Sequence to fold (102 residues):
Amino acid sequence: MAGLTNFQPDIQQTVETGFVIVTEDSGAGMVDIHDRRPVVLEPEDTLQWMDPYTSVEEAAHIAQTRSVPTQEFMWWKVDRAVNRVDPNNDGKHLLVPISESG
Fold:
């Protein structure tokens, strides 16, 4: 997934560091789940995205034109616990598909 951060290795941070995931409109069947989805890049595009010498304009172009299309995603219904913030709410069991009637 494409992301942005203000963290700089080997440099004394003078502000709090943060991280965001770059998103785009969902489209196709995924819009039924959420109106936004992460920008997901192929490995070769990821290397260029992460290269510190890639210009902001080129990074924007990569995100806008080379994101993996919605049709390539697989999704299934999961337990509502997936969306709850709770330190005890963690584990592979949350990835198990549930029935549509569940």
Q: What stands out?
A: The chain has a mean pLDDT of 82. The CA atoms of residues 3 and 100 lie 32 Å apart. Residues 3-73 form one domain. The helical segments are 43-50, 56-65.
